[in-house]
Design goal:
44% of the residues lie in helices and 17% in strands. It is built from 13 helices and 9 strands.
């Protein structure tokens, strides 16, 4: 917990667009922070067509340090820039309206920035969860600024969360804010430009409970994100006098294949992390979309078997204000056994091919 004699004023900004099912939990996770310093909350409703604005206004009647602003739909990048204008403190903490912040989030990150004046943005580790808050598995990011920047510059997956990150407003403005030319990858662009004027860092603590659902921007805009990401990467290389990369970061698959890849990606993480109940929860809609996928049917069998062994998930459901209780895996699981058989088969085939 932060030292009460040395605290910083923080503005927590929460952009929201059609997130009425999750927004209250996001706000409550901020209200239950283990932070002794002054902070305020701004929720910006980006022209939602659901009850997001009503949820935010209802919460604001109970919270004296919370402000609600609404606008016609402007999209992600313009909304983030508007929130920069609305925030009156130099320290700005971002939380997406469908995520949860761990109770230690603000205390940990403000303390780090206080002790590292050259750092312009600090994040943490994440743990993914289903739409209903059931644990899926960890999302780990590198800690050091050089490794974070190199990963971004090489075109790999984002090594810095936009949600549950604390930034210095002056530095963000000096870097040019969020680039509205790239409304699907505005955070990736900012991290590259921020790294050119200051240091980035990730802490080892888990600060973000990242909600995975089929209406999230990182799901519905995945292909656009990757296309825009390539253009952003090329700009960064040119700014730094480095040779361009001709090929797109990754081959972009057709929409149906991309949906299959993403669903299987999260299902695999859930099984690998000992959370088969969450895997089974995600497999329901996945099998409706891809009923002919043998690997998904096999994953369903493994999910049921491991769920019986573990009596549910190994990691408890995430709720606002509760510390994350991430349990270790037992020695045996059907998922581990299956992966072991696959590896053994590959080694056998490799040995057989080499002997011919």
């Amino acid at each position: 917990m932060a030292d009460a004699s040395c605290v910083d004023s923080v503005t927590v900004v929460i952009p929201a667009y059609n997130l009425d099912a999750y927004l209250q939990d996001a706000i409550e996770s901020v209200l239950k922070q283990q932070y002794d310093g002054p902070f305020s909350i701004i929720v910006l409703d980006d022209g939602s067509t659901d009850a997001s604005l009503e949820v935010a206004n209802r919460m604001a009647t109970k919270v004296s340090n919370m402000t609600v602003v609404t606008q016609s739909n402007q999209g992600r990048a313009k909304t983030r820039n508007r929130m920069l204008e609305l925030a009156e403190t130099d320290l700005i903490a971002w939380l997406d309206g469908d995520d949860l912040a761990a109770p230690c989030w603000l205390a940990d990150q403000t303390g780090y920035l206080r002790n590292h004046p050259n750092c312009v943005a600090v994040g943490g580790q994440g743990y993914s969860m289903t739409a209903s808050g059931n644990a899926i598995g960890p999302i780990t990011h590198p800690l050091g600024g050089a490794e974070i920047d190199q990963r971004h510059l090489s075109g790999q997956a984002n090594a810095f969360f936009q949600s549950c990150v604390l930034v210095r407003k002056k530095a963000v403005l000096a870097a040019g804010g969020y680039d509205e030319r790239y409304p699907c990858a505005e955070d990736y662009s900012l991290w590259l430009r921020l790294a050119e004027i200051g240091q980035l860092a990730n802490l080892s603590a888990c600060h973000l409970c990242y909600r995975v659902h089929a209406t999230s921007a990182n799901w519905t805009l995945n292909i656009d994100q990757r296309t825009q990401g390539h253009a952003i990467q090329q700009e960064a290389l040119r700014r730094r006098g480095l040779p361009p990369v001709a090929e797109v970061m990754d081959e972009i698959p057709p929409v149906k294949k991309d949906d299959w890849n993403r669903r299987l990606f999260w299902i695999n993480i859930a099984l690998r992390s000992g959370n088969p109940m969450s895997a089974l929860q995600m497999l329901g809609p996945a099998l409706k979309r891809h009923p002919g996928s043998l690997i998904m049917w096999l994953a369903a069998f493994v999910s049921i078997a491991d769920m019986l062994i573990f009596v549910g998930n190994r990691t408890a459901k995430f709720r606002p204000g509760e510390s994350l209780e991430i349990r270790s895996l037992p020695r045996f699981s059907f998922y581990r056994a299956g992966r072991g058989l696959v590896r053994a088969r590959r080694r056998w085939r490799g040995g057989a091919d080499a002997s011919q």
